[in-house]
Amino acid sequence: MGSALSCCADAAEEEKRIVTERVKEMKEEATDQVHKVQTEALGRVKDMEAATVDRVHDAEETAVKRVREAEDDATDHVRKVRDDASDELRDVQEDAEDGLQDLHSDAGSGIERFAPDDALELLEAAEDATSFVDDGSDNERSRSGSLTRGRAPHTTSMRAKSTIKSGRKK
To answer: Disordered: where is this region (predicted)?
Structure first.
């Protein structure tokens, strides 16, 4: 019986050793599985972080591009408005200059057609108009010459006044 008992004890010891070894293997497999899952999870997190960083960079680049386009559009619009205003001002000044030239021409050469008092009033109106336009078109006149045909406005007025005054003396 001793040998059967010792055989059972040896079998129990062998069974214990096998179970212990199997538990040890299962622990190692579980540890390996945990490490594998952790590594995969960490890889996914890194991929998600990289994708998020890429999206943020793309969004920043898109925002910067849109701001630049908006700035360019605004600059173009300001330039267009400025050019349109400059063209409009130039047209108004040219119309005013043409009107003044006509007025001075009528006053200077057509004095005989009017009574001296009427001609003097016409000249004074022309001078008032000239001074009004002069206030707003000094820069334009410096580029295009005087407002009258080859003469300064005051010269035309002075000649016309002198003609009118000589006509009054008669």
So the answer is: 68-170
